[in-house]
Write a structure and sequence with these properties.
alpha/beta; 7-stranded parallel sheet; 4-stranded parallel sheet
């Protein structure tokens, strides 16, 4: 039982800072050895992981957690195997640490370049899913960072069970257990201590619902990598291939609903709306999607509900879609600028000049031509894995993989050069 949370978190921070120096020096082979050892420990401990997870599930049922949250909380054989496989895949990813780029000789004779280095100590605050414990630990470890993980109180037993597997793997590889620390208390004061812990934590990454991310963004004195909303748009231009447009718009909404890269608003050029919307709307309705549109969209689809102003700013994360008819690409981009969340936006067009304008002028972390917004994902971008998606412009933007968990420093190589 932890009675003094402040003292406990101070000790966690000091251990993490020391461990950060150790893991930053570790070579790729050692980090990969640790990742594989953690994966083996997770697979060997499947029965205990399931048993500890059942404690969280039972408590969740007693508290009346809904079915969706219980599903995210559950650890079964398939999900445990998935955690282990994810760690093994991380071991196969290229190591960004130590990479030197942009080398050039200056007129003075010195050689200047940039070297990729770890951030230091990464604090991750997350909810529900205990598999995040393994995923986040693995990504931070491979990128040479120490990490402090604070999961949700609803997954306390599960997270501690996974933490024991992580510590077994680190010990087996000859690394300090303090490289990855999972907070052992459900006391919310631990979150506050992390947000104020600028002496020990270099960056905070929140993963969870809007209320969590809003709190972290508002209260943290430590830099934060985050996205608040995923209000993603698809704009169907009057120069679009209408078959492509139909398929992209349907996939962007219905492939999965409760994800941040699902389309929430469909924008259609007024010159092709009558050719696209009626048929597409019937497919949405057959799929169980509720449609909310402006006056013109409603006039084309009898089953469509009238949209309110709030609908244009809503991240539904559900089978609900806002539909707006726009005059042209400028009208579409103005709407995205006014109501978007800088996450992911896509244009469907065969006009190269308009496509280039959309790429250049839409200020989002991912901007697409003729592709579903569902591709905004670290794995799909070739990052191998991601810790989350950032809509900020500093330090990382878009899906944050191993490279996003590092920074760069300038290196200078001389042979006795002095400045004159």
């Amino acid at each position: 039982m932890i009675t003094d949370v402040t003292a406990y978190m101070q000790e966690v921070g000091k251990k993490a800072r020391r461990a950060a120096k150790e893991i930053s020096r570790a070579d790729t082979g050692l980090k990969n050895k640790a990742l594989l050892a953690i994966a083996d420990a997770i697979m060997a401990d499947e029965a205990r992981l399931v048993a500890e997870n059942e404690k969280d599930l039972s408590a969740g049922r007693e508290k009346g957690l809904d079915a969706a949250l219980l599903d995210r909380l559950e650890l079964n054989a398939e999900r445990i195997a998935g955690m282990a496989e994810g760690l093994r895949q991380m071991a196969n990813l290229p190591d960004p640490v130590g990479e030197i780029t942009n080398r050039s000789y200056r007129p003075s004779g010195i050689e200047v370049g940039k070297m990729r280095v770890p951030l230091g100590v990464i604090g991750i605050i997350y909810e529900s899913r205990p598999n995040v414990t393994a995923d986040a630990a693995g990504l931070c470890l491979k990128s040479g960072n120490a990490t402090i993980l604070r999961g949700g109180s609803e997954a306390l037993y599960s997270n501690q069970a996974v933490a024991q597997c992580i510590q077994q793997g680190l010990t087996a590889a000859g690394l300090s257990e303090d490289v990855v620390q999972v907070i052992q208390t459900a006391d919310r004061a631990a979150v506050g201590a992390m947000l104020k812990g600028k002496d020990f934590i270099d960056v905070i990454i929140p993963r969870g619902g809007k209320s969590l991310i809003e709190r972290v963004s508002a209260d943290s004195v430590v830099p934060v990598i985050k996205h608040l909303d995923g209000i993603c748009h698809v704009y169907i231009d009057d120069k679009a291939d209408l078959e492509k447009a139909h398929n992209i718009a349907f996939n962007a909404k219905t492939h999965r609903y409760g994800v941040c890269n699902a389309m929430e608003t469909l924008l259609i050029n007024e010159h092709v709306a009558h050719l696209v919307l009626p048929e597409l709307a019937q497919e949405y309705i057959a799929e169980g999607v509720e449609l909310r549109g402006d006056t013109e969209a409603c006039s084309m689809v009898a089953e469509m509900h009238a949209a309110t102003e709030d609908d244009w700013d809503e991240e539904y994360l559900a089978p609900v879609l806002a539909v707006k008819i726009v005059k042209d690409i400028d009208d579409a981009m103005d709407h995205i600028s006014d109501h978007g969340s800088h996450h992911t936006d896509s244009i469907v067009t065969e006009d190269l000049n308009r496509a280039r304008r959309f790429l250049r002028e839409v200020d989002s972390a991912s901007v697409m031509i003729n592709a579903s917004t569902r591709f905004a994902d670290g794995f799909e971008y070739g990052l191998g894995a991601e810790i989350g998606i950032s809509t900020d412009k500093l330090h990382a933007r878009g899906p944050v993989g191993l490279e996003g968990l590092t920074t760069q420093k300038y290196i200078v190589i001389g042979e006795g050069h002095i400045r004159v």
